[in-house]
Structures are given as structure tokens and as C-alpha cells.
Amino acid sequence: MYAIIKNGGKQYKVSEGDILLLDKMSLEDKSTFEITEVLAVNNGELKTGTPFVNGAVVSAEVINEGRERKVVIFKKRRRKDSKTKRGFRRSFTRVRITKIAA
Question: How many Cβ atoms are within 10 Å of 22's Cβ, its own excluded?
């Protein structure tokens, strides 16, 4: 059984027990929350929503919050004495999918 959920403008294919990194949600560790934006559920037969499946809920438990490794963006234009260096670290919430209810 799996579901396709929407979070932060991105879509994730999840099943029970999966661990994934979502955009930061400022929740306490060990807390639970529900995702109601379920685009599709497959439990033997595929149910798709328009855009969301009615009554489908994915329950998740927060493991921790953190930040990923820094991504360095370096641009250099040769022979122009022009260069820029920028960095970016994404903040995330690590969650474990506990239950998929169709």
C-alpha cells in the first residue's frame, strides 16, 4: 500500500515506515500530525483525487528537525575579473510515515 502526498509544492510517494525529509514545519520531536493533501492511494486498486482523495489521511511522526549540508554556488566569468560565491542550507523536518488511511 502506498500513497502520493503533496507537501511544500513537492510530491512524495510514501508507504508505511518510510522516512522522508519535508520542508521545515516547526513541530516538536515525537509529535504526530496528519497530511490531508493526498493525491492518490493504492491499496490493491488505485484511487486518484481531483485534486485530493476524499477521506484519505496519512499520519506521520516527527523524528527531528535539522539543516542539510551547505550547497555552494560559485560563478566565475573568465577574463572578466567577475566572480560570485553564495551558499544555501535547506532546513528540513525528518518524519516517519506511521499510517495510511484511505
Answer: 18
Over its length of 102 residues, how does the chain's per-residue pLDDT go in tens digits? 999 999 999 999 999 999 999 999 999 999 999 999 999 999 999 999 999 999 999 999 999 999 999 999 999 999 999 999 999 999 999 999 999 998
Q: How far apart are CA 62 and CA 53, in angstroms?
A: 24
Q: What is the DSSP secondary structure assignment for residue 70, as one 8-state letter?
A: P
CA 57 – CA 38 distance, rounded (Å): 7
Using alpha carbons, select from 57, 13, 24, 63 the residue that is nearest to residue 38.
Answer: 57
Rounded distance between C-alpha atoms, residue 5 and residue 14, angstroms: 7
- Domain map of the chain by residue range? 2-101
C-beta of residue 100 within 8 angstroms of C-beta of residue 1: yes
Q: What is the pLDDT of residue 102?
A: 85
7 with 97: CB under 8 angstroms? no
